[in-house]
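pipeline/complex-builder :: batch 7 item 3
reading input block
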Amino acid sequence: MNDIAWIDAAFTAARPQALGALLRYFRDLDTAEEAFQDACLRALDSWPRNGPPRDPVAWLILVGRNAALDGVRRRNRLESLPDEEALSDLGDAESDMAERLDGSHYRDDILRLLFICCHPDLPSTQQIALALRIVSGLSVKQIARAFLVGESAMEQRITRAKARVSAAAVPFETPGAVERAERLSAVAAMIYLIFNEGYSANAVVDRGRAPLCDEAIRLARLLLRLFPAEPEIMGLAALMLLQHARTPARADAEGNAVLLEDQDRSLWNRPMIVEGLALIDKAMRHRRPGPYQVQAAIAALHARAQQAADTDWAQIDRLYATLERLQPSPVVTLNRAVAVSKLRGAAEALAMIEPLAPRLSGYFFFFGARGAFLHQLGRTEEAREAFNRAIALANTPAEAAHIRMHLDRLVADVQSG
Amino acid sequence: MLYAILCYDHEDAIGAWTKEEEAAVMGRLSVVQEVLSRQGRLGPVARLVPTTAATTVRKAQDPVVLDGPFAETKEQLLGFFVVECADLEEAIETAKDLARANAPGGSYEVRPIALFKPGQIQTEGAAG
């Protein structure tokens, strides 16, 4: 690994905590970002010569803070502070000082940084873009590519979002327990949005979006380190790890989507599955179920099945029933129906989703599932109709192509039968 | 003499490596391990899942179970090698080979092993 690569990884890792602390000092996002940027520039000069500091976060906070204060002093023609050379090998004393400055606050610093991106006035795409820019430190170019928009459009979007956030009162006081829990759940939802943006059907054909999944997982691990005993955060991290583990098997060589039951499970990412299973095991010990944990438990059952035929559909059905109670939604019922079709047949599954029709009349997956159930029941004409509706509602060419594959099977079955 | 060579580094910096960087480091480390293995000096090797997956059990008559690693530290224990070395010098040289193969930052701690039982687990790769 060359100098730039490991230093870059160190910056990325240090960014949330360093920027969070600088934001608390300066109470201004632009100043904090500039200070962090300055510190990084100095690190690029100093670290290759002196070796990496023992505590890169403390180094960046102190150097960044001094650089920003230096700027203020220079403008005020006051005496300047010692340069970063004096700080380049932070002794234990300085490290302790940084610890005292930040140790007690760092949890809330990072949470605040994430939380300001979740401003309720911002549409979800702007929340995601802002978090990726501010917390993850992705470049505007990288974010633009992930969202499939032009760089200048994304630049504008982020600038607008920042202005919105700056105009709002950023909460600097230390939050109480209730507020902290509220922030945590808003941030968790935002992280899952980032993940889904990357995981959506587009990711199958467009690898440019896959980094969003990695980024979301990184943010969840960060959150988990701050709140190590929160079962829902464990569940969120587990859910994303277990889903993302399947990414290498989700598309064939031509870029077509491969159904879960048809995937080559040897392609699944084992280390991610091991980590995901470890986290869901930990979460369940708390006996405080929540939607992320239940969804992760479902993903874990898929991950534990050596082959599709080994899937424990009865347990999946029970977990979806729990999820319906915790978070009632027609989409959850639709997913449960898939488990029911495996367990008790397509007729029962079809009966289960019929009442959802009015609410899911614009939903691609509803007609895809309905078509599949009708096909299994041999109701070919109705199945064809449902598949055609699904194609009309497809959001991406990949989704449409996937349904066409179903139609082809339908035709093949009719011909062979 | 058996030595444990423990790898400590900033977990989130490792987590920020790209797949290519990860593969490059792992490739270079495996070269060092192959040499040790040919010399018949390499024992068990383990890479640990991030500390966020850790659970801590406090020793007591009624043990207390806590989420997270034993201690919150700047650098985390990421994995270890067990290596047969003639003396501390050789162990340090081995740790240096690993250090050169790895990315800058972090440390290898060289700890002589007082008691070693190789056990009977034969599985390779990640469990689970």
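note: Residues 106-167+176-227 of chain A form one domain.
queue -> next item
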